[in-house]
Amino acid sequence: MVERKLTVLQLLPALETGGVERGTLELGAGLVRAGHRSLVLSAGGPLVSRLTGQGSEHIQWPIGRKSLWTLRLVPRLRQLLRAQQVDILHARSRLPAWIAWLAWRGMPSAARPRFVTTVHGLYSVNRYSRIMARGEAVVAVSTAAREYLLRNYPGVEARRVHLIERGIDPAVYPFGYRPAQSWMARWYQEHPYLLERQVLTLPGRITRLKGHLDFLQLLARLLRDGLPVYGLIVGGEDPRRAGYLRDVRAAVQRLGLQGSVTFTGQRMDLRDILAVSNLVYSLSRQPESFGRTVREALSLGVPVVGYDHGGVGETLQAAYPVGRVPPADLDTLERVTRELIEHRVEVSPIAFPSVQDMVDATESLYGELVSA
């Protein structure tokens, strides 16, 4: 427990949907509950109202814009840090981390806040990404993220890298959860064909990273042999990646999957959709640092099939090893799916770190830094 009230400023590009954004909100809410002042600086987005409703303050700057103009924010941020008497400057993304570091470095050492970075992704290894290793303390959201840092940036002292896993709220994702009858009635009224199918769900934004084309090929293989399966792709469309979405929809046509897959768009009831799914998938071709939806589904007791690398492989190894598939191995993906459809392997209850665990560990780290 930190004895004095802290002012914490978190920086990220925007408050859209995604794991970085959710982690920012969860930490902000936890800090407010603990009596601290929570500030968040971003370009804004649909989650701002939720953030401020939880007691955090939002500062809207275009800090994620990839332009030389963004460097003009450096002296402005330095002034903000002084004016708001910020104790902890916590960067969660590469471009905001560069702006934060340049502002922080230009302050007298006695007047600086403590500088923290969180490695949310297994970024390409280069000088641009190295900024995430420059925090006085560096938070890794999984063992995979910690190993990535220490392997690729040998100058980083291990003592500065702190493993603080993102949390799952056990009250929100209880084992064996079933949606309310009212939700079930609406869902099956909208999707009556799901009542007699095995529902295979791929959650995640429509970006090339998430493996939608592998998922569609899997569906086509299973349907070709007459298995009663239906695919759900649950996630919002990214206007900046309209070309990829066209590729995905073209694949639906080419593989003859019309009537066998639904794009739900962004949903606020993902927990309920996961709970009524037979299998949930995580098929990113590039290793992810964490894989939040994998833990959410397993927390509910829903089997998960995923590529065995990064944070997803780490979670499956610990909680549901039968669901592991070598990355991009469509034959094994098909075989594992068939086996689980024909002979379901139940998920055993597992206690993942909670959101409160994450908040407590982060608050403790802040306390160590300010008292050092």
Word description of this protein:
Helix content is about 40%, strand content about 15%. Helix 3 (about 75-85) packs across helix 4 (about 95-105) and helix 7 (about 210-225) packs across helix 12. The chain has about 375 residues and is of the alpha/beta class. The chain has helices at about 20-35, 50-55, 75-85, 95-105, 145-150, 180-190, 210-225, 240-255, 270-275, 290-300, 310-320, 330-340, 355-370, and strands at about 5-10, 35-40, 55-60, 90, 115-120, 135-140, 160-165, 200-205, 230-235, 260-265, 280, 305, 325. It starts with 6 loop residues before the first strand and ends with a helix. It folds into 2 domains: about 5-165 and about 355-370, 3-Layer(aba) Sandwich (Rossmann fold), CATH 3.40.50; about 180-340, Glycogen Phosphorylase B (Rossmann fold). The model has no long low-confidence stretch (mean pLDDT about 95).
List keywords for this structure.
single chain, 372 residues, alpha/beta, Rossmann fold, 2 domains, 7-stranded parallel beta sheet, 6-stranded parallel beta sheet, 13 helices, elongated
The total strand number stands at 13
Unreliable segments of 5+ consecutive residues = none
* Adjacency order of strands in the biggest sheet: 3-2-1-4-5-6-7
Under CATH, the topology of the largest domain can be stated as Rossmann fold
Beta-strand content bin: 15-25%
Percent range for helical residues? 25-40%
Termini gap: 15 Å
CATH level-1 class of the largest domain = Alpha Beta
Please state the structural category: alpha/beta
Biggest sheet, open or closed, and with what strands and sense?
Answer: 7 strands, parallel
Mean pLDDT, to the nearest integer, reads: 93
Q: Overall 3D geometry?
A: elongated
What is the assigned CATH homologous superfamily of the largest domain? Glycogen Phosphorylase B
Radius of gyration: 22 Å
Number of domains: 2
**CATH architecture assignment name of the largest domain:** 3-Layer(aba) Sandwich
How many separate helices?
Answer: 13
Helices and strands, in N-to-C order? EHEHEHEHEEHEHEHEHEHEHEHEHH
